[in-house]
Amino acid sequence: MPTAIAVTSADLVLPAPDRHTPAAAVLPPPDQIDLEGSLAHTAGLLERHGHLVVVVPPWLPTAAVRRLHTVRAILESDRIAFLDIDLPPLGTALLVRQLRQLSVCDFSPGVLASAARLLSHYVYAGALLGSVAKLDRVPVGLKAHAKSWAPSAQFGVLANPAPHLVKLGAPGAHGAHGGGGLPPGPEFATHLTFARGQLASDWVAAELAPAWRVQGVMENPLPADSPAWWGTPKLVEFAAAIPDPAVLYQLVASVRREECRWCGYELIGDRCGFCAAPLTAPPPGRPGAATADPYAGQYSRSRS
To answer: What global pTM score does this model have?
Structure first.
């Protein structure tokens, strides 16, 4: 059986793009299952799949995070990886689907877990927002804050791979939303997924998708945590990512593999996906010092 990919809520599980992509396991929160139930559920996943890779979003409540770590500690298992990837909810769901696609390939559990950081660099995640007054995930200038109070204000915001914010023109000015530019898009083939909140707009499908030259567009329900992440329920969230498992495989396979000096798992990049140990020891006097991200530009270099 392939390595199991797990999430902490069902709305982070997008429909499988084909019959080969396995489903993700959903780990219920503490208010839905007691500790004994969590232990049995997780132990069952390990028995069936051998290894478990859990995507742990940064907005997860403290009690849920504590439960995850408690279960791993009680099971005394080094076969559970916790991935702390900081993407918006819909972008996180797309990354989870990519990991599900790769889980049936011949990658070792360590490579699969550490590949999440690599793949996250090629997820273009953003939202059309009716207000940025409470947005704290992307830098917002005073002028944009002031314009947020206008009744018809709308903003195109990109959170990943690099923050970007544009004020969109009033509807009907020059096309659907006037000028104001668009968030910069990917320079490689993607599919775009979007989810509607309390904002009636076709801007994502009608303007953004053609400008980004995406190969396909799909609508899904809005994740429950999206309004809090973006600071407003008046939004249309979107995310574009590489859909082709063959391209994903080539991208991951092109990166040099190393062995974790702490737990022995294979890894790519500069940090183990299972024990989070850095590939090399930090310089003296700088415990845990971060290294430059080894993945920047990887895909563009591989295509040149």
So the answer is: 0.88
